[in-house]
Amino acid sequence: MGKQLNVGLLGMGVVGSGVCQVLSEQRAAIKARTGVEITITRALASPYEDKSAIADKYGFSLTATVEEIFADPEIDVIVELIGKINPAKEFILAALAHKKHVVTANKDLIATHGPELLAAAEKAGVSLYFEASVGGGIPILRTLSTHYLPDTITDIFGIVNGTTNYMLTKMVAEGLTYEEALSEAQEKGFAESDPTNDVDGIDAAYKMVILTKFAFGMTIDLADIDIKGIRGLSIEDIQQAAAFGYDVKLIGAAQKNTAGAVAVSVGPVLVPQSHALASIKSEFNGVFIKSTGIGQSMVYGPGAGSRPTATSVVADLTELAKHRADGIVAPFIQFDAPAHLAAATERVDRYYLSCSSDIDLSETIAEVIDPTVPPQQNSNGSSAYLTKPITQQFVEERFGNSAGIQMMKVMEEF
Amino acid sequence: MGKQLNVGLLGMGVVGSGVCQVLSEQRAAIKARTGVEITITRALASPYEDKSAIADKYGFSLTATVEEIFADPEIDVIVELIGKINPAKEFILAALAHKKHVVTANKDLIATHGPELLAAAEKAGVSLYFEASVGGGIPILRTLSTHYLPDTITDIFGIVNGTTNYMLTKMVAEGLTYEEALSEAQEKGFAESDPTNDVDGIDAAYKMVILTKFAFGMTIDLADIDIKGIRGLSIEDIQQAAAFGYDVKLIGAAQKNTAGAVAVSVGPVLVPQSHALASIKSEFNGVFIKSTGIGQSMVYGPGAGSRPTATSVVADLTELAKHRADGIVAPFIQFDAPAHLAAATERVDRYYLSCSSDIDLSETIAEVIDPTVPPQQNSNGSSAYLTKPITQQFVEERFGNSAGIQMMKVMEEF
């Protein structure tokens, strides 16, 4: 008992085949380090593709009937890598009802139905782990659950979408337009043919739902987040931001104000070029944490990809194996707290404002412009300004409906 | 049983008083999240200073007799924050012999006597944790023990000494000389009056001993490390490196070659300005990891300081509290492997070579110079070159004994 952990695998796409490979390579090392041998014994056959070659290679059997996996008394844990909400949700609930532990990388599902799934796991006396749902290979969720447990986080923010960071890196470094950068991301496989979830900030917002839970204990949903994407961001804005000393990044942020209320947002932000987040290029992700104990810290790594994400999944399996050998069930999230949300519109930040050549903003914004920063003029006639600290509400009321005006928050220096 | 964890505290200096404060602030949150209340019940009185005010404030008793703490049946864990080797080593061994768990931040001791202490802990059936011994507040050791357990690390390197990083940041950003930067670090409390351990790379080397154990399972000692410091680094070299596009950083590195042998070194390295490690300024630390699964990742944060280091100590206590409530003893390090070391001199890297105005290196190094990078000339007449990849042995044999010649490794781009 406890020396063998048998896995039932649902999903053999990019990440699923990565899990087969990483487990195969690391099985002996994991056994040497934990005493437990982790083996995939059975997998759900794909309705789209013959997976018998991979099943043969890694020595597990296939079944077209998912219930056979749930009912298999030899299987201890289900790894769900199908993605999206249905039927992944039904599969996980069924697995938990059969008292199987579950490991998943499904951020959409955890962000939208996490509390229901965690309650089902608790009721069944098993664990539900999902480290790979945020930041691919980055060790962020377990680190928040352990190292930051005796700390008080005030801000957690960063780059949590690799597709848009790849595009923005190309725009900043090579001067590509938004459309050129998107095409290149699609060619390289970093963006899907329908890039909506990435470029409109939805994917980043799902991850912020999960990070808000781990950092503040608060359960929120997508509707609580002020979401802006990078769709149609102009190369002139990228250039003008650079002239001010900033790189434009898509930043997800959950920030507590002095009254203890948390504002959660996703949107393009001007990051100082000297800030650690500005050094995060291409498809990499990074999560920056401000806390009363540790101060300022960051974890950084690949936000997606077969092997990094698979390694996070296998790290969850390894933790499960250790806990099971010890005869304990260790919950992934350590705490709940009532949601106490602040409207993003109440936050005070400096802003970048730009306008096309047919608009003269200089008088309209005279009262809010930062007099220490000279405006930038682009060769195409557009101009850009940095403001003093003002509320998002003020910016939106004054400029939100004006065509040709771009507004982005400016991140403070350290 | 398990709902209360009583702490005996040895050492009430900067970090010790931070532990009192962080525990006091976080006690209720830790209890809510783990079910365990952590309380300092007794501390060793300082021979140098009256600590009764702090003992009264945080509600614990003082004793001048350390044996009373070890013999106290109410105390579950000893926190050792005295530092240095003696008497810290004797105290820890005595505590372990009394079957007390131990948490320490003592890098010198762990680096030089870690195996003996870990064996004593194992024999006594208790835990020895020391997250704060590397990187202050950074969650690096526990992360290596969990998230990277099912991964194969090939390189672990980074900035693990805050004092020298503060000095180098001042030299790069403000043009201070080595002496000016050292004076400022001493004024700010980042460097001791005798800065030897920091500027000569000894402190960084201690940390590399510990990181080598966690990354590769190998037990090494200081003599296995090729150690260079930053003493007397010239501002001209800083400027010439910047002109090539690099910041000079003191880098500790443990790197596995294709034959599986690990070379461990500490020394000044030219880091590309676009690399994540170059964005680590002042007293901050960062550890970069290359591995076959996750790929490239980094953790970053404050390398020292009262609250960050104390928070790492309290994170160890919190993990201990959880494990004890579960009735288990979880070792901090997961694996051992035989030491298989490569001489640092066998490593192939690009090099930065500079010489004062009275030396003309151009002919001597014609065969190794990188022809794509024009040499830099400094206003004081010194010149600098980047080489093609060559072995450290070649560099040392050819230039190691030449006065007026500076040699530094160049870190590759990502």
UniProtKB/TrEMBL annotation, chains A, B:
GO molecular function: homoserine dehydrogenase activity; NADP binding
Annotated catalysed reactions: L-homoserine + NADP(+) = L-aspartate 4-semialdehyde + NADPH + H(+)
Pathway: Amino-acid biosynthesis; L-methionine biosynthesis via de novo pathway; L-homoserine from L-aspartate: step 3/3; Amino-acid biosynthesis; L-threonine biosynthesis; L-threonine from L-aspartate: step 3/5
GO biological process, one term: methionine biosynthetic process
Domain Aspartate/homoserine dehydrogenase NAD-binding, first and last residues per copy: 11-131
Transmembrane parts of this sequence: none
EC number: 1.1.1.3
Pfam families: Homoserine_dh (PF00742), NAD_binding_3 (PF03447)
Chain positions recorded as NADPH binding sites: 107
Domain of life: Bacteria
Ligand binding (NADP(+)): 10-17
Alphabetically ordered keywords of this record: Amino-acid biosynthesis, Methionine biosynthesis, NADP, Oxidoreductase, Sodium, Threonine biosynthesis
Active site: 207 (proton donor)
Residues that coordinate or bind L-homoserine: 192
Keyword Lyase among UniProt keywords: no
Family per similarity comment: Belongs to the homoserine dehydrogenase family.
NCBIfam families: PRK06349.1 (NF004976)
Protein name: Homoserine dehydrogenase
Organism encoding this protein: Candidatus Enterococcus testudinis
